[in-house]
Amino acid sequence: MPGAAGLRVLLGVTGGIAAYKAVFVLRALREAGHRVRVVPTEAALEFVGRPTWEALSGEPVTTSVFDGATGVDHVALGRSADLVVVAPATADLLSRAATGRADDLLTTTLLTVTAPVLLAPAMHTEMWQHPATVANVATLRARGITVLEPDSGRLTGSDTGPGRLPEPEAITAAALALVAPQDLAGRTVVVSAGGTREPLDPVRFLGNRSSGRQGAAIALEAARRGARVTLLAASVDEAARRAAQHPAVDVVDVETTRELADAVDTATAEADVLVMAAAVADFRPATTAARKIKKDGSGPPAVELVENPDILATVARRERARLVVVGFAAETGDRDEVLELGRAKARRKGADLLAVNAVGGGRGFGDVANAVTVIDGAGEVVGEAAGTKDDVARGLWDLVVPRLR
């Protein structure tokens, strides 16, 4: 169904200075596993050239209805699309789309599309607020087309105001939400992401390699599917933070395991699902030095460790009847060894589902593919998900949603 990987996306680009931002929309869609055909206007090619669009999309680029005439491309493109995004959408494009003009490949294609359409406007404030543009936007929205509100900020030149193109991450999130199943609508979801850090002194800490990107993808997919999401971010990297940008995602920053435990208690009070994707430190230093630990010639200091609270097991025992609890288990070793370790952890933790993945050696952490085997509380395999972080997030929610019913 729509929302799965491999969507056929048409990316329309019109002739505005913000056309360069569409390059980042294209990249985000491609990295999420979707096939993207770029359909620029002639004016758009004055800002970003045809070779750029073709190189980044891997697809041919044309502006004319006469190219690809044997395949009737101006009709075939619209019929085959699963999703259409136009960014930037200039005042001219909004006018032509609202009045049904068909004077280039982009507007002709818009007349044949039956898939969801999202337009991301960008223009000067006076143009956005002009009665003609206001009327055109109202007409398009009445027809079921999604027209985003532009951001307010610095525009071309020295003027500032509403009319700035929304950021590429926001455009991509809003577009993919149009084709995501809304099976989490009305639900409240809490996701932890990243890795907790336990301070040794004001400079150093015990931590791990988790970037938070998988947790961010899980949070974003939940928001796309209609949920209200709280993302508990434990030292996530900037890429993860950007990836989780969505109006329905609230980010709460935490650092230590105890801070995360407190945040989980607060956030899950009204939640339907908890997904513990963060890599949580099992131990912390018994004491934290008030000043940076220095070499003094007596050798390295001994660090006494104490056990941290087991957040997943505690919540699973306390809340199992009230919310669906999903844990993650990052393990090292071959597939069979990793799975056995995961089964033992599933029985010990008591979560409804446990996503087990092998990490290390270029797997799991950071900007790399991921693969998880999902098992239930009894250690039985209930499903698998692999591919990009977004692919894994979609697969995981496909397994979680039936348990909410």
UniProtKB/TrEMBL annotation:
The keyword Transmembrane helix does not apply. Its cofactor is Mg(2+); FMN. Its EC number is 4.1.1.36, 6.3.2.5. One of its GO terms (molecular function) is metal ion binding. Residues 8-175 form the Flavoprotein domain. One of its GO terms (biological process) is coenzyme A biosynthetic process. Residues 1-188 are annotated as: Phosphopantothenoylcysteine decarboxylase. Keywords: Decarboxylase, Flavoprotein, FMN, Ligase, Lyase, Magnesium, Metal-binding, Multifunctional enzyme. Binds 1 FMN per subunit. Pfam families: DFP, Flavoprotein. It catalyses: N-[(R)-4-phosphopantothenoyl]-L-cysteine + H(+) = (R)-4'-phosphopantetheine + CO2; (R)-4'-phosphopantothenate + L-cysteine + CTP = N-[(R)-4-phosphopantothenoyl]-L-cysteine + CMP + diphosphate + H(+). InterPro entries: CoaB-like_sf, CoaBC, DNA/pantothenate-metab_flavo_C, Flavin_trans-like, Flavoprotein. One of its GO terms (cellular component) is phosphopantothenoylcysteine decarboxylase complex. Residues 189-405 are annotated as: Phosphopantothenate--cysteine ligase. The keyword Metal-binding applies. NCBIfam families: coaBC_dfp. This is Coenzyme A biosynthesis bifunctional protein CoaBC. In the N-terminal section; belongs to the HFCD (homo-oligomeric flavin containing Cys decarboxylase) superfamily. CTP binds at D282, K292, P309, D310, I311, L312, F328, K345, K349. Catalyzes two sequential steps in the biosynthesis of coenzyme A. In the first step cysteine is conjugated to 4'-phosphopantothenate to form 4-phosphopantothenoylcysteine. In the second step the latter compound is decarboxylated to form 4'-phosphopantotheine. Catalyzes two steps in the biosynthesis of coenzyme A. In the first step cysteine is conjugated to 4'-phosphopantothenate to form 4-phosphopantothenoylcysteine, in the latter compound is decarboxylated to form 4'-phosphopantotheine. Residues 184-400 form the DNA/pantothenate metabolism flavoprotein C-terminal domain. PANTHER family: HOMO-OLIGOMERIC FLAVIN CONTAINING CYS DECARBOXYLASE FAMILY, PHOSPHOPANTOTHENOYLCYSTEINE DECARBOXYLASE. Pathway: Cofactor biosynthesis; coenzyme A biosynthesis; CoA from (R)-pantothenate: step 3/5; Cofactor biosynthesis; coenzyme A biosynthesis; CoA from (R)-pantothenate: step 2/5.
